[in-house]
Design brief:
Layout (H helix, E strand, L loop, with lengths): L1 H6 L17 H11 L10 E5 L6 E4 L1 H7 L15 H21 L8 E8 L4 E10 L3 E5 L8 H5 L5 H10 L5 E5 L1 E7 L1 H14 L6 H16 L4 E7 L2 E2 L2 E2 L10 H8 L4 H13 L4 E3 L10 H9 L4 E9 L2 E10 L7 H7 L3 H26 L5 H19 L11 E14 L2 H31 L4 H16 L4 H25 L4 H10 L9 H31 L3 E6 L3 E7 L11 H24 L10 E6 L5 E6 L4 E5 L1 H12 L17 E6 L2 H16 L8 E4 L10 E6 L5 H8 L10
Parallel strand pairs: 17-20
Antiparallel strand pairs: 1-2, 1-7, 3-4, 4-7, 5-6, 8-13, 9-10, 11-12, 12-13, 14-16, 14-17, 14-18, 15-16, 18-19, 20-22, 21-22
Helix pairs in contact: 4-6, 7-8, 7-13, 13-14, 15-16, 15-18, 15-19, 19-20, 20-22
Length: 753
């Protein structure tokens, strides 16, 4: 039917003058029908036909002409075409995309759409429109031969003004003749553009301050909702230790909170409102506050005083977790209805992300303060640091002098101390050092003899003499002063001499290079004994630390406690438990008893673990296990200078002094060390303290974890400390299979003293 209609106007095969286009209104209507869908609303469709490469629209929908001609003034809405220079640039980019593809087979992909902001006087805010130009019905021919183009060099600048300027010089538009028509479609993309602006806030939050971001989001929401008379409030939920913070400033974008602050309403009453909402989050909507308002009298009064006619509060979720609430309100009656919710619904996931970002920023500020003022913390005590950090930030934000951050302390906690030491680690370390140095000096002496033999250099005799002298020292007792002088000889005399010899006698370099390879700490033979010792110590320490870390997880499940390890030649640890560490969880003495039984059992497990590692050690090392029994409570506080907890008060410091002096204590009237490999030593002051652990020892003996060799010992007096006593019991470190073989007289491993 359309083709039959066109056949009646054969002149359309040729040129049609602009002034003649009204004659073909019926044909243009058919073009309109053919190129648009029947479901589009005619009164909203901004669609037109224009002359190619010009803004002259000679046919269009009523909605298009109403849009281009502002009502009442009949003046062309210049905003849609922007300034002439910008329009020219965009037109050039579009046309050269078309021309390069047709005549040079070059695919320069340029978006044939333009976004334009247009102020809507009815809504009183800027809307955004996308202008799309369809040139499928445009034919173009060159009026003369076209020049060759270096597209490779031109390609680098096509998206810049310089590239377009070059194309205009090389391919001016008067080289081409355009015929046909373009289809112009203008689409309201305010909602999509507003969403993009909110996304931009999400991506570039760090580039702008919070208030600027908030204004951008609110303006975008107004544009999506289609009214400047709507207002929005964004309320993230800020919490410290799972409790909402009492800070109205954090919720100052809520009309209820901001009005309440102006009226002097107490902060905690607002927190109660939020907590009530959080306990049962759901949409709260008052379409007409003159007819029905909130049950909370004070909130209703605040809204009435502000002239609010409609109010809505909706929960916002991020990853199915409530992160805040979202306010919509207006002072214009009948404006807020369900359609507004539908319009802004696409923005809700972005609002949720913004809220989560704000919560994350708040938490980072708390953590940053903790890191700056404290140190890495355990979950059992971090709540205390969270509160201190928040109070410090709050005072700072209020403009008050924040002063010093509050003292972190826990009162009346039960202490437990344990130490796992490597027996004779100092002796083993000195032994490894002497063996390595002896090898190094023997090797150095061999190198010097070879240099003397091949070069005849007389000074080598002196170095050989000094090497012999140091070898004699290494066979005796090496003092710290000897070690310093020995290193000075190597680093300041022997090694510089070898370096110089290597440069002046290249033929002897292989001998010298071999020596220097041997004294490399990472792989050199002269460090082999020290590396073997270090690997053995690391093997034990890593196994013990892993065991304690795993056990700590179990301890925290029973009752939160503070567990701190210290690295020595072995491992020391302090444990503190009490009501002040977990004020929200009822405390009972049974948790202390459970911890003490764990301590004894874990020491037995560590002794057995270290014994099982002996076959893997290059240097056999044996561990000793020590427990200090102390039944009284103490106070501890965080020392910021040392970034750790320590005892508080004169009486409590005595506990700290004792545990530092008992590691090498001897049995009274003897030179025997209390701590022995394969045994657990428990130091105490009075029998009442020991009785509890004795019952635990009997329990573990029945389970065949401890040997039946419990000793009751008195200890030598230490500086300022007297009356110390000890229990000592052996650990059954043998495997079950080994025990069965011993029963039939066939031990698998010979037990050495």
């Amino acid at each position: 039917m359309i083709l039959e209609k066109f056949a009646k106007y054969p002149e359309l095969e040729g040129e049609v003058k602009l002034e003649d286009t009204p004659k073909y209104r019926e044909i243009l209507d058919l073009v309109h029908i053919a190129l648009t869908t029947v479901v589009e609303e005619e009164e909203k469709l901004l669609w037109g036909i224009s002359i190619p490469v010009t803004p002259y629209i000679f046919y269009g929908s009523d909605a298009l002409y109403e849009f281009l001609l502002e009502a009442g003034t009949q003046e062309l809405n210049q905003a849609i075409f922007a300034d002439p220079e910008t329009f020219h640039r965009q037109k050039c980019a579009m046309l050269y995309s078309f021309l390069l593809n047709k005549f040079y087979n070059y695919n320069y992909t340029h978006k044939r759409e333009i976004i334009r902001p247009v102020y809507d006087p009815h809504c009183r805010f800027i809307k955004y429109y996308r202008i799309n130009v369809d040139i499928r019905f445009v034919e173009v021919a060159s009026t003369m031969p076209l020049p060759e183009l270096n597209l490779e060099s031109l390609e680098l600048h096509l998206d810049e003004d310089a590239g377009l300027d070059t194309l205009e010089k090389l391919l001016p538009f008067d080289l081409f003749r355009f015929s046909g028509f373009s289809i112009v479609t203008i689409t309201d993309v305010t909602s999509d553009y507003s969403l993009e602006k909110i996304k931009d806030v999400l991506v570039n939050t760090h580039d702008k301050n919070y208030e600027e971001n908030y204004r951008t989001v609110v303006e975008s929401l107004k544009a999506m909702a289609g009214s400047q008379d709507l207002e929005f409030g964004i309320l993230p939920l800020f919490k410290v230790n799972n409790r909402l913070i009492e800070d109205v400033d954090a919720y100052n974008h809520s009309i209820i909170f901001s009005l309440g602050r102006q009226q002097g309403v107490a902060e905690n009453s607002f927190v109660q409102l939020i907590e009530k909402f959080v306990s049962n989050p759901h949409l709260i909507f008052f379409r007409d506050l003159d007819m029905a308002g909130p049950s909370h009298v004070q909130v209703g009064k605040l809204l009435y005083m502000a002239g609010v006619k409609s109010y809505a509060l909706m929960p916002v979720y991020y990853n199915k977790k409530l992160v805040g609430s979202f306010e919509i309100y207006t002072k214009q009656k009948g404006l807020l209805d369900e359609r507004i919710f539908t319009r802004i619904e696409p923005a809700i996931p972005l609002i949720a992300q913004l809220m989560q970002n704000s919560i994350d920023d708040f938490q980072r500020a708390i953590n940053r303060t903790i890191r700056d003022k404290f140190t890495s913390l355990q979950p059992s005590v971090q709540w205390k640091f969270n509160e201190a950090a928040w109070k410090y930030l709050y005072r700072s934000k209020k403009g008050e002098k924040p002063g010093d951050i509050q003292k972190i302390e826990f009162r009346q906690v039960y202490p437990l101390y344990g130490a796992v030491d490597m027996r004779n680690s100092t002796i083993e370390r000195n032994k490894a050092l002497i063996n390595d140095l002896s090898y190094q000096f023997n090797h150095l002496q061999e190198v010097l003899n070879a240099l003397k033999e091949k070069s005849g250099f007389g000074l080598t005799d002196e170095f050989i003499f000094k090497c012999n002298k140091w070898l004699k020292v290494l066979r005796g007792v090496v003092t710290p002063n000897d070690e310093i002088r020995l290193n000075q000889f190597l680093n300041e005399e022997a090694h510089p001499f070898l370096e110089h010899f290597r440069e002046t006698h290249p033929a002897l370099s292989p001998i010298i290079n071999e020596y220097f390879r041997n004294i490399e700490p990472a792989e050199g033979r002269a460090w082999q004994n020290r590396r073997d010792l270090e690997e053995s110590m690391q093997l034990i320490n890593n196994a013990i630390n892993n065991y304690l870390d795993n056990m700590n997880v179990e301890l925290q499940r029973a009752y939160p406690c503070y567990f701190e390890r210290f690295r020595t030649d072995g491992v020391e640890y302090d444990i503190y438990i009490g009501q002040s560490i977990a004020p929200d969880k009822p405390f009972d003495q049974v948790y202390v008893k459970n911890l003490r039984l764990w301590q004894l059992n874990s020491m037995a497990a560590i002794a057995k673990l270290s014994a099982s590692l002996l076959p893997q050690m290059k240097v056999p090392l044996y561990t000793t296990q020590l427990i200090f029994i102390y039944s009284n409570t103490i106070d501890i506080s965080f020392r910021r200078d040392e970034r750790r907890f320590d005892v508080e008060g004169g009486y409590n410091i005595r506990y700290h002094i004792i545990k530092k002096r008992i590691d090498k204590v001897n049995i009274k009237n003897s030179r025997e060390r209390l701590t022995q490999p394969g045994k657990i030593a428990l130091i105490y002051f009075n029998q009442k303290e020991a009785d509890e652990y004795i019952s635990y020892i009997h329990h573990l003996q029945e389970k065949n974890i401890l040997n039946d060799d419990l000793e009751f010992l008195e200890l030598e007096e230490l500086q300022g400390i007297s009356g110390l006593k000890a229990l000592r019991v052996g650990v059954n470190v043998k495997e079950e299979a080994e025990q069965e073989d011993e029963e039939v007289g066939k031990p698998l491993v010979k037990q050495e003293e």
